[in-house]
Amino acid sequence: MFLFSQPIETARLTLRPFSLDDEADMLEFESRPDVARYLYNEPRTPENNAKELAARTTQTVLLAEKDALTLAVDLDGKVIGYVLLVWLSEENRQGEFGFVFNPEFQGRGYATEAAAEMLRIGFEKLGLHRIIGRCDVRNTGSARVMERLGLRKEAHFVESEIFKGEWGGELHFAMLASEWRASPLSKAEDATA
Ligand SMILES: CC(C)(COP(=O)(O)OP(=O)(O)OC[C@H]1O[C@@H](n2cnc3c(N)ncnc32)[C@H](O)[C@@H]1OP(=O)(O)O)[C@@H](O)C(=O)NCCC(=O)NCCS
């Protein structure tokens, strides 16, 4: 079980729950076709963005399997992206993480910096044994974030699903708790302590 209790401060960012005040920042990037290109959702409209935001404000606890922790990534008061951690299996201590950022703030390492904290929560607070990340085979930016964080590429599924009207392939990456403990990231100051 994990209950989010206080904002996480990284070197440059604050990770915190979404609030209804974040609507404009969220719509700014989640309405963009380039952001939604490799996500299952389409670019958000103001209506479904507001609905999704309302759901995210409650995603602050991991009490049971399938629960998601979704945190806004705040840079000097502006939400520039979000990171999430889904509890896949309690018995097998498995989780999945993800990250989505505003293109205006990409290329500066913010996604890598924020996503590392989801690995930290998963391994150090929730006690997970393994965390996976998945991306479309064409999503090189996402794959690079996972490699930079030290995840291993475990699989390349070829034309494994129909994605947005065409055959899509998927890469699966993973990290074990033992690999996290050996990683330089885990030695960094625990911002959630
Ligand atoms: C996937 C996504 C988050 C990657 O964004 P990103 O900006 O490339 O990732 P980061 O913020 O970690 O930045 C990394 C880049 O900044 C560079 N960088 C600059 N300063 C850096 C720093 N201090 N630390 C780390 N990297 C830094 C890196 O070299 C890297 O560049 P490269 O990809 O050319 O090697 C982004 O493309 C995105 O949101 N896409 C749309 C949503 C999506 O597809 N999400 C993933 C779903 S699976």
Automatic annotation (TrEMBL):
Mind listing the GO molecular function terms for this protein? acyltransferase activity, transferring groups other than amino-acyl groups
Q: Which SUPFAM superfamilies match?
A: Acyl-CoA N-acyltransferases (Nat) (SSF55729)
Residue ranges annotated for the N-acetyltransferase domain, each copy included: 13-178
Q: Which Pfam families match?
A: Acetyltransf_3
Database matches in InterPro entries: Acyl_CoA_acyltransferase (IPR016181), GNAT_dom (IPR000182), N-acetyltransferase (IPR051531)
Q: Which PANTHER family match?
A: GNAT FAMILY, PUTATIVE (AFU_ORTHOLOGUE AFUA_3G00765)-RELATED-RELATED, N-ACETYLTRANSFERASE DOMAIN-CONTAINING PROTEIN
**Annotated protein name in UniProt:** N-acetyltransferase
Organism of origin = Streptomyces inusitatus
